[in-house]
Request: fold
Amino acid sequence: MTSKATTAKQQGGSKDSPTKTQQIILTGDRPTGPLHLGHYVGSLRQRVALQKEYKTFVMMADAQALTDNANNPDKIRQNILEVALDYLAVGIDPKHTTIFIQSLVTELAELTMYYLNLVTIARVQRNPTVKDEIKQRGYSGESVPTGFVCYPISQAADITAFKANLVPVGSDQVPMIELAVEIVRTFNRTYNCDVLVEPKAGLSDITRLPGTDGGGKMSKSLGNAISLGDSTDVVQKKIKGMYTDPNHLRVEDPGTVEGNPVFAYLDAFDKDKKELQTLKEHYRRGGLGDTVVKKRLTEVLLAELDPIRARREEFAKDPAQVMRIIEEGTKVARAAAAQTLKEVRQAMRIDYFESR
Ligand code: TRP
Reply:
């Protein structure tokens, strides 16, 4: 990709030649609560690392959050600021990244409407992530809101409205990207055009962080999350209470590293891989207590979280300024989506009053 970018530059970077800086990222989060380590490892770190290289859009998916919170809009509203603070705190920089609110880009709702016609009910019902979420939320039979079952279609609209090439997400979002790719292909084939761009999932090396309870996924609603804004005290307490190897009862006992969330977190955050390897071997052999390992995790994690928390507190002093950043970003995002919608309407031959 680098060589391509160089070539385009050497050629004077004509308007149509895709240089690397024109590659686009779109990703986002539902503002249902403050963001946690799972978001950080799965996606936020990548966004920060890539934002200078890619044209980056980061979206607060309030409309998606409403698909299972229709009767609780205040929760979503309150979390807009929380999530924005998390973004800024981890280093998502409004100079490089457009931060915006999904529902205010109404073109996304319009595009969703057209995509609904390209996807069968059987196809939406096959989405493993949505199936899990339906179970988790306790919807029985067909009592699940239509908007919830169909949110992956709306997510395809989010991604494609920005012609995103790359979508940095955790592994649970892969089925969404797969559907988006299918919709792109179906759309371009059906309307005999090349308006839409196929996205790729950008997966980090650690695609899923377990909860502090050892559960499969860290999630605020499951109560097993460490939030980015958690205080030192809270982080210490959560690590102290973390699930480890239940058979590792005495210090002398050999312990299991695999599936042990304390080691999963160390894998994600400890930069000294060599020492971590030694630690793992010692744990497996026996003679290394959970408290020692947890102490190390506490140090490593606080070293990462302290500066994030400090930046968060700094930005939190001026919420009006944060809201202005989002408002500006939303304008920019809306213009980008409107351009795609214009092309979409033309391809679909519903651009009745546009002169060709
Ligand atoms: N479904 C994503 C989540 O739960 C949030 C989201 C909405 C998203 N639209 C998106 C992510 C578009 C990537 C691209 O985390």
Notes: Residues 26-30, 61, 64, 155, 158-159, 167, 169, 173 surround tryptophan (CB under 6 Å). The beta strands are 24-29, 55-60, 97-101, 166-168, 200-202. Confidence is low (pLDDT under 50) at residues 1-16.
